[in-house]
Design a protein that fits this description.
Elements lengths: L3 E6 L9 H13 L5 E5 L2 H9 L9 E7 L6 H10 L3 E4 L3 H7 L1 H8 L18 H9 L10 H9 L2 H7 L1 H11 L1
Parallel strand pairs: 1-2, 1-3, 3-4
Helix pairs in contact: 1-7, 8-9
Length: 178
Amino acid sequence: MVNRVLYIEGTKEDTNGDLREGFRTLLEQKLKGKMPRLVMGNSKDETLSFFNNERLNVKYKQRDVMIDSDGVEQEKAREVREKKSPALFLMVQEMEAWFLSQPEILDERFGIAVSKKIPAGDVKTIDDPSGKLYKWTKDCKMPYHKVHHGVALLKKLKLSELENKFPDVKRLVSVLSN
């Protein structure tokens, strides 16, 4: 019996692909046999509403939530947030920042050198990574689509590399491993 749940901001809609399955494939790289139930929310508000709903969560011993930060988070603010809300994890700024951190998967998927368009520096500081990814692939046969491409790209990410670049990913894997 699964006694842990992870709520994830994204979408429950699956006609363009199942984001839940993409996250499952990614997390199973390190959590096989320890996977929580994954529940997608259609928005940040809905995801947090699921997470905070005591009646909905009565059957779980542990619940966690992962949402977009929608902005740059400073180190000190992250440390304060982790202490105040240890079950809250951020995709900094959106899951697309994860894709930008492993640009070879973008080059392969879109057949163009997306990696050459990514500014040097910390991808966590790129504003609107999903918008940038769409802009950089708009001339492709099929420009970036958050769900359609997101599922395939999540499955190609290396979780260990994400842990090295994104503190919340590392903490999430650690928490879910216990």
